[in-house]
Design goal:
Length: 326
């Protein structure tokens, strides 16, 4: 299989590295408008690179494209790849531009259109989804936050898509978390929002949200999202009568209440944690690998994707509504 990775920033390089590890028989090519990123990818991974998709198409016969550019560019790139009749894997879109049209185009051309939702492939999330019944009247409190300039300390946050109002940092956190929360606790049917701007950052969007949500099966929770916290935090508590889970975002931090011992005990997961130096402790490589495996299984016709554009369209509409609440 010939793979074209469009966008050779941090996520594009991660995808290349993991594909080479998982599928060394695949040929990988890269596209980026920046020559410095092309040069870095050639040096690090020994791949051929091009400035445009059309140039890559002329040079080599492509089967599959991974769209790893900034979200606002995804719509046009996805459409171009689907028109070339390539299977497409795309990172988070954050906006629904072209969703309906691209879903129809993928169906028309018989192409897989796969959307990244990495947390659905975390072993801790899979464990929680097995244990937490959507009909079980659960409560939860979940806080995710990190100071915006610390997300990519090697570049100015205004040069990164999280500085843009349409693809802002709080919106990205919601787009990462709401798919698995909805899968675990059920569809969100009611909510209330308190949000404002606490920082002096040069941004034109609210930098923190406290959201209470009611799910269709009676579960309810409080989701706290911010780009304010000077300490990177991911902290979940979920509970109901005689059951309780606590998670701090890392594979070794998932705790479960044991009735017999009347104590919290660590949940030992089967998958060995893989962590890339330079990233926060709760950024593990396993989930990125798992979703790439899922994507290529879908391309090969071995299974259906668990999450896709149709479900994400509804999540993005929910996020739009949450952002509009004052």
């Amino acid at each position: 299989m010939n793979i074209l990775v469009v966008g050779l920033g941090s996520m594009g390089k991660r995808r290349i590295r993991l594909i080479k590890e998982l599928y060394p028989e695949f040929a990988i090519y890269g596209v980026d408008g920046r020559e410095d990123r092309q040069a870095e990818a050639r040096e690090m991974y020994g791949i051929a690179t091009y400035s445009t998709i059309s140039a890559a198409k002329i040079a080599v016969e492509i089967d599959t494209a991974l769209v790893c550019t900034s979200p606002l560019s995804h719509n046009a790139i996805i459409a171009e790849c689907l028109n070339n009749k390539w299977h497409v894997f795309t990172e988070l879109n954050l906006v629904s531009d072209g969703y309906v049209e691209n879903m129809k185009l993928a169906e028309k051309n018989g192409c897989t259109l796969f959307l990244s939702s990495t947390f659905l492939y975390r072993e801790e999330i899979r464990y929680l989804r097995e244990k937490i019944s959507p009909s079980g009247k659960w409560n939860y409190v979940y806080h995710i936050g990190q100071y915006l300039p610390d997300w990519h300390p090697w570049e100015n946050y205004k040069d990164f898509f999280i500085g843009d109002k349409r693809t802002n940092g709080c919106r990205e956190i919601m787009a990462i978390e709401l798919p698995w929360l909805s899968k675990t606790f059920g569809k969100v049917i009611d909510y209330s929002v308190v949000s404002d701007c606490q920082t002096e950052l040069n941004i034109d969007y609210n930098d923190n949200y406290i959201i209470t949500m009611k799910h269709e099966n009676g579960n309810k929770g409080c989701l706290i999202v911010d780009v304010v916290s000077p300490v990177a935090v991911r902290r979940l508590e979920a509970y109901r009568e005689k059951e309780y889970y606590k998670w701090s975002g890392t594979p070794d931090s998932l705790l479960e209440y044991c009735n017999d011992k009347d104590a919290l005990v660590q949940v030992h997961l089967h998958e060995k944690e893989e962590h890339k130096e330079g990233y926060r402790a709760f950024v593990v490589e396993n989930a990125y690998k798992n979703e790439l495996k899922e994507f290529f299984s879908v391309v090969n016709g071995d299974k259906n994707a668990e999450y896709g554009f149709a479900q994400d369209y509804e999540i993005l509409k929910l996020i739009d509504s949450l952002e509009e609440q004052k």
